[in-house]
């Protein structure tokens, strides 16, 4: 039911892990729903996201969308990262099954949470 | 290495013996079993032989065997047919919380459309119902008790003989879905007090699209499909001769080879279970480890990770298994069966069913275990729950 692009991303996800000295961390979802996504970011003084890593408990779509989300934000200014929509994540993956769209929503929320965490700490 | 198939509870390959028996039905014995001429009579003879093979396999009479399109159809027929035939007696049906959707969904539908009342008996952590609960659930208006012989996810056998006796002592009919069980579990409908029983050929190395409903003679049941006179006018439609012949042959073989197959399968399963439990931390075996279980199923929950991810990583490694997780089915709720056994929802999300078949080997099990070790570890490295397992908290 997944396309090749999703399966490739799931089979070899990028930016796996946690940045210990992260400037912002976003955690969304919960275990009883079957999805937890955590994105940690390094953000420089000019607001550029210089690194991002993820850890995800969830299905193949959750893992693939997390991986894509980290790749999409690295190198972006936080203002641009905040404008990333779940549909952008879906587009990068060339589509998701309808019942998996919520994973892309989690990815968008995790990005926003991480940036909000960064702003709160500043 | 060829792909490894460990999803025999979903379906099995058609065995060579069965295929050979079926082949003439396509091009040689192609007559309509209801026709009076020789072409038709030749087909009818094969259908009669198959009916006898099924009857012999479950201790029934040929006149009690009805061919259907599969297990789901048989389950639908018996529930709808009993509701129809016994509507003056009552409207209450007793079942379990771990039935197949073929039954569950049909009952849910009948609650809406016919106002029937359903009691779903819970199960303990090994998947057994309580006979005492069953007894106290019976009402004057109860028309049917339906309990699966073996569960399709964890393989637990219910004590169907005792359940049937309780039903009969209270003048209630008893149906059992034996779709999963028939390969490994000896069925005798008389000794086990069974009034109706569902079977499906593709679960025992027969073809897909053909099944059986056993109905004890003398018991009322509403007609299922109207039309011609096939199946004593209860289930009309031209006989699927090849399917019926394949089913008959397959069930004959299943009974013939049952002891040898059970030995092979339980050896493989036990080896697999001990390898997994000794080599992978934080795994939980679901179901019972006692004697009352299918020898072909091992259901595990892998903590901190999600079932679909494991399933798809195994698929990439050339291994086919099944997941009880919500994600593969498209719903948000994980396996109703595992939740009914009291398994926490997080663990239910991380469950996989490995179901072995007669052609699986110990070498394959070794490869599967090796792949599992790598995959489980790799997915746990991805999981924030795993990272937090040693006392850390994960606040969301």
Largest sheet of chain B: 7 strands, mixed
On the 0 to 100 scale, the average pLDDT of chain A is 95
Number of domains of chain A: 1
Strand arrangement across the biggest beta sheet of chain B: 2-8-7-6-5-3-4
- Strand-residue proportion of chain B: 5-15%
Largest sheet of chain A: 3 strands, antiparallel
Low-confidence stretches of chain A: none
- Give the termini separation of chain A: 43 Å
Q: What's the assembly state of these chains?
A: heterodimer
H and E string of chain A: HEEEHHHH
**Superfamily (CATH H level) name of the largest domain in chain B:** Type I PLP-dependent aspartate aminotransferase-like (Major domain)
**Coarse morphology of chain A:** globular
CATH architecture designation of the largest domain in chain B: 3-Layer(aba) Sandwich
User: What's the end-to-end separation of chain B, in Å?
Assistant: 43 Å
Give me the CATH fold name of chain A.
Sufe protein. Chain: A
Radius of gyration of chain A: 13 Å
Helical content of chain B stands at 40-55%
> Total number of β-strand segments of chain B?
13
What is the count of helical runs of chain A? 5
Describe the structure.
The complex is a heterodimer of chains A (122) and B (396). By secondary structure, chain A is α+β, with helices and mostly antiparallel strands. Chain A has a single domain, classed as Sufe protein. Chain: A, CATH 3.90.1010.10. In chain A, 45% of the residues lie in helices and 20% in strands. Chain A is built from 5 helices and 3 strands. Chain A has a 3-stranded antiparallel beta sheet. In chain A, helix 2 crosses helix 5 and helix 4 crosses helix 5. The longest helix of chain A is centred in the C-terminal third of the chain and has 21 residues. Chain A is globular. The model of chain A has no long low-confidence stretch (mean pLDDT 95). Chain B contains 15 helices and 13 strands. Chain B has 2 domains: 241 residues, Aspartate Aminotransferase, domain 2 (3-Layer(aba) Sandwich); 125 residues, Aspartate Aminotransferase, domain 1 (Alpha-Beta Complex), CATH 3.90.1150.10. Chain B is α/β, with parallel strands linked by helices. The longest helix of chain B is centred in the last third of the chain and has 22 residues. The interface between A and B is medium-sized, with 33 and 29 residues.
């Amino acid at each position: 039911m997944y396309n090749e692009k999703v399966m490739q991303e799931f089979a070899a996800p990028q930016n796996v892990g946690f940045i210990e000295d992260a400037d912002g961390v976003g955690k969304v979802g919960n275990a009883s729903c079957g999805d937890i996504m955590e994105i940690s970011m390094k953000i420089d003084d000019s607001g550029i996201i210089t690194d991002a890593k993820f850890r995800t408990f969830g299905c193949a779509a959750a893992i693939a969308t997390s991986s894509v989300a980290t790749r999409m934000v690295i190198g972006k200014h936080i203002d641009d990262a905040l404008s990333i929509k779940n549909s952008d994540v879906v587009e990068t993956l060339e589509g998701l099954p309808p019942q998996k769209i919520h994973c892309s929503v989690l990815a968008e929320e995790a990005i926003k949470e991480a940036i909000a965490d960064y702003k709160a700490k500043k | 290495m060829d792909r490894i198939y460990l999803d025999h509870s979903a379906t099995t390959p058609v065995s060579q013996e069965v295929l050979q028996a079926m082949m003439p039905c396509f091009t040689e014995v192609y007559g309509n079993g209801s026709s009076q001429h020789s072409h038709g009579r030749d087909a009818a003879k094969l259908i009669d032989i198959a009916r006898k093979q099924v009857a012999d396999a479950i201790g029934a009479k040929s006149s009690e065997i009805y061919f259907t399109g599969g297990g789901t159809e048989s389950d639908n027929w018996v529930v709808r047919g009993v509701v129809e035939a016994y509507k003056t007696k009552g409207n209450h049906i007793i079942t379990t919380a771990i039935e197949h959707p073929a039954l569950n969904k049909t009952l849910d539908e009948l609650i809406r459309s016919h106002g029937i009342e359903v009691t779903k008996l819970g199960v303990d952590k090994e998947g057994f119902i309580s006979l005492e609960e069953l007894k106290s659930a019976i009402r004057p208006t109860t028309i049917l008790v339906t309990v699966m012989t073996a569960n399709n996810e964890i393989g637990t056998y219910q004590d169907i003989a005792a359940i049937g006796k309780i039903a009969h002592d209270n003048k209630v009919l008893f149906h059992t879905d034996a779709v999963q069980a028939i390969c490994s579990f000896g069925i005798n409908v008389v000794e086990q007090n069974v009034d109706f029983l569902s079977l499906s050929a593709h679960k025992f190395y027969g073809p897909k699209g053909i099944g059986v409903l056993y109905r004890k003679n003398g018991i009322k049941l509403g007609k299922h499909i109207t039309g011609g006179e096939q199946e004593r006018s209860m289930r009309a439609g031209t006989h699927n001769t090849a399917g019926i012949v394949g089913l008959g042959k397959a069930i004959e073989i299943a009974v013939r080879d049952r002891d040898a197959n059970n030995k092979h399968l339980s050896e493989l399963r036990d080896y697999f279970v001990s390898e997994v439990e000794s080599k992978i931390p934080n795994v939980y075996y679901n179901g019972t480890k006692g004697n009352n279980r299918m020898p072909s199923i091992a259901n595990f929950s892998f903590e901190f990770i999600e079932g679909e991810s494991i399933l798809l990583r195994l698929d990439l490694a050339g291994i086919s298994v099944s997941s009880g997780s919500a994600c593969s089915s498209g719903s948000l709720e994980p396996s109703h069966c595992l939740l009914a056994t009291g398994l926490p929802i997080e663990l239910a999300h991380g469950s996989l069913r490995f179901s072995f078949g007669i052609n699986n080997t110990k070498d394959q099990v070794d490869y599967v275990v090796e792949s599992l070790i790598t995959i489980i570890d790799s997915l746990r490295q991805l999981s924030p729950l795993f990272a937090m397992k040693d006392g850390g908290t994960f606040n969301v």
